[in-house]
Amino acid sequence: MSSKTRDFVQKVAVSRGWILQSDQAFLETLIAGLTQTKENNGYYLCPCREGWGIREKDRDIICPCEYAAADIDEFGHCYCALFQSEDYASSKKAPQSIPERRPDELFPD
User: Fold this and answer.
1) Each residue's pLDDT tens digit, 49-83
2) What residues contact 65, with CB distance under 8 A and at least 6 apart?
3) Angle formed by the axes of helices 3-16 and 24-41, nearest 10°
């Protein structure tokens, strides 16, 4: 697991007042996915979404994606469940599937 990626997600969580996924195995999987997207694309792309591999086209899903705050406000966690609200994290609920907010025209063909 990349310590740089772990540091990145911890800094994002602290700066936004979010909590990281508490399931350590799941967290490691998400961090590994972010690390891989960083190695492949040069930026942290949401590990649960398919991107274009072109920074400008992927801008909305670069971690933390532009949909994260709304997802956390409405559902308690972001799309990939990496980041959670304090209330949701303390509830110990398992992440749920949430609707995709990304407009269809932004998906790769």
Assistant:
1) 989 999 999 999 999 999 999 999 999 999 999 99
2) 46, 49, 78, 79
3) 110
90 CB-near residues (< 8 Å, 6+ apart): none
- Name the residue type at position 84: Q
6, two tokens: 């772990």
Q: Distance between alpha carbon 60 and the CA centroid of its chain, in Å?
A: 11
Distance CA(76)–CA(82), nearest Å, equals 11
pLDDT higher than 70, residue 109: no
Cα–Cα distance between 78 and 67 in angstroms, integer? 8
Domains and CATH numbers, the chain: 3-90 (3.90.460.10)
Instruction: Look up residue 86 and give its two tokens.
Output: 């304090």
